[in-house]
Amino acid sequence: MRVLLTGGSGDLGQTLVPMFVRKGHTPVILDIRAPYDSRYGVYIQGSILDREKLKESFSGCDCIVHIAAWHGIHEVRGEKDSYDFFDLNVRGTFEVFEMAASLGINKIVFISTTSIGRPDTLYGRSKILAECTAEDYRKYKNMNVITLRPRAFIPFWNRGVYANYSDWARWFWKGAVHIDDVASAVVLSVDLISRQHLGRQIILTLDGAYEYTDDDLAHWDTDGPGSTFKKYYSKYYDLTLSYGLDPGLKPTKLDISETVRWLGYKPSYSLATLLSDLAAYGDSGPPQFTLTTSGPFGSSGAASGQSR
C-alpha cells in the first residue's frame, strides 16, 4: 500500500517511515524540506497549501496520514500568529481532505491533539476547526477516518526543544506519551481503516504506559511525599533527586480505553523505561538517531515537518 505522510520529514513522519516499510508499504513524504534520512520511501518537496503539488503527491496513494501543522510551541514562542495557524492547520486540513476526496482516496488518519481542550489557544482552536473539517468529509463524503489525539510527544533527541535527556524527563514526568507509542497507534489505525469501513466518527486519545494504578493516583502519597513513587521505583529515588526530578509530582493519566478497544493499542514507554534509560545513559539519553537543532520538530509540541 502507498501511504502518504503530510509533514513526513518531521519527527513523527520519520519514526513512521521505517515502520511502514517493514510492513511492506511504500511511504510517500510530502514536506517543504527533505527528510534527514532519505534511504526509505519517496520524497516530494512541496506544501499542502499548493494544490497542484498536492494532486501530484496524492496520485496513486491508497491512504493519507495527515501530520503537517503548526503547534503549541510556535504560539508560546511567538513565532506564528492566528493567520499562520488558520492557513496551515485549518485550510491545510481542508486542502488535504478535499484533494483526497477528489482523487477517491477514502482512508485518512488525522493527527490532532489533546490540546483541543484548550480553545483559548490558537493551536487548540485551530485543531478544533480541523477536526470539524475531518468529520464533515467523513460524514458527507463517506470517508474512512480515524482522528488521533495524542498528548505532546516531542522526542528527547530533538535538541531544538530539549537541551538534554533530563530536560525532556521533566516534561514527561507529568504524564505523557512517547513518540514510538504514537507511531504504533498510527500504524494500527492504518491497518484498521485498510481492512474495515468504520462508518462512524472515531476519535482516540493517546497516552503513555503507567505503573501507577488508578488507586495509586486516587490516594497519592498518603504515606508521605514520594511514598507512591517509592512503591514502584525505590531504587531510582536518589537518581531522581540528583537530576532535579520530583518524586512527589503526581502525573496526569488519560483514559485510553476506547483506543485500546478499537486499535488494541498497548503503549510500552513508561516512567520505568525513562528511569532505566536515565540510569544507563544519563543526560545523553539512550542511543537514537540525531537531529540538528534546526531539524524537524516533534508533532505535538512543535512543528512536525511543517508543510506551508
Strand content: 5-15%
Q: CATH H level of the domain at 2-162 and 177-206: which superfamily?
A: NAD(P)-binding Rossmann-like Domain
- The parts where pLDDT drops under 50 for at least 5 residues are 290-308
Helix proportion range: 40-55%
CATH fold name of the domain at 2-162 and 177-206: Rossmann fold
CATH architecture of the domain at 2-162 and 177-206: 3-Layer(aba) Sandwich
Give the integer mean of the pLDDT values: 93
In the CATH scheme, the class of the domain at 2-162 and 177-206 would be Alpha Beta
C-alpha termini separation:
26 Å
Described by strand count, sense and barrel closure, the largest sheet is:
7 strands, parallel
Question: In sequence order, what are the helices and strands, one letter per element?
Answer: EHEEHEHHEHEHHEHHHHH
Structural class, from helix and strand content? alpha/beta
| Strand numbers in spatial order across the main sheet | 3-2-1-4-5-6-7
Strands, total number: 7
Helix count from the secondary structure assignment: 12
Please explain how this structure is put together.
With 308 residues, the chain is of the alpha/beta class. The chain has a domain of 191 residues: 3-Layer(aba) Sandwich (Rossmann fold), CATH 3.40.50.720. It is built from 12 helices and 7 strands. A 7-stranded parallel beta sheet has the order 3-2-1-4-5-6-7, sandwiched between helices. Helix 5 links the parallel strand 5 and strand 6. Helix 2 packs across helix 4 and helix 4 packs parallel to helix 5. The longest helix has 21 residues. The chain is globular, with a radius of gyration of 19 Å. The two termini are 26 Å apart. The C terminus is likely disordered.
